[in-house]
Amino acid sequence: MNTSIKLIFFFSLSLMAACGYHLRGSVALPAELKNMYLFGVSGDLNREMTAMLRAADGKIATSPNDAGIVVKVLKEDMRQRVLSIGQTGKSSEIELDYYLRFQFYDNQENPLLEEQTIELSREFFNDQTAILAKEAEEVTIRKEMYRQAARMLMFRAQAAVETHKR
């Protein structure tokens, strides 16, 4: 019985590996993206990019000349907007907007793609009776937005490198 369960488990793993399945957040990077230089990136986005590169056996380059690709952030902004106000006059619904405009360069400062933008938006209820819980929820939502932006940036960098190779 125990052996058959192990066989089914290993057979399932081999099927998932054969179809290209990988865990969320892990990205198979080409060699050019394993050494990336980030210019003008906020601390939150830098932290997510570093974690993503580390998970893919990559790293942040210390200078643009050592990098396979350079990401130059032209504008990055996180905004908070009140969507509705409750009976007490305090906000009951909030929207977070994240805007990122950037461009990819090779290590010779040649642009790889035109300017790119990423815009993300999230709404959440701001329950005034649970202030501490709502602050923690907002922090979690912000982290997830930075993580999603880093993932989108990495996929676009991969497309830029593949387009430039052709």
UniProtKB/TrEMBL annotation:
<keyword id="KW-0564">Palmitate</keyword>
<keyword id="KW-0472">Membrane</keyword>
<protein>
    <recommendedName>
        <fullName>LPS-assembly lipoprotein LptE</fullName>
    </recommendedName>
</protein>
<comment type="subunit">
    <text>Component of the lipopolysaccharide transport and assembly complex. Interacts with LptD.</text>
</comment>
<dbReference type="InterPro" id="IPR007485">
    <property type="entry name" value="LPS_assembly_LptE"/>
</dbReference>
<keyword id="KW-0732">Signal</keyword>
<comment type="similarity">
    <text>Belongs to the LptE lipoprotein family.</text>
</comment>
<dbReference type="Pfam" id="PF04390">
    <property type="entry name" value="LptE"/>
</dbReference>
<feature type="signal peptide">
    <location>
        <begin position="1"/>
        <end position="17"/>
    </location>
</feature>
<keyword id="KW-0449">Lipoprotein</keyword>
<comment type="function">
    <text>Together with LptD, is involved in the assembly of lipopolysaccharide (LPS) at the surface of the outer membrane. Required for the proper assembly of LptD. Binds LPS and may serve as the LPS recognition site at the outer membrane.</text>
</comment>
<keyword id="KW-0998">Cell outer membrane</keyword>
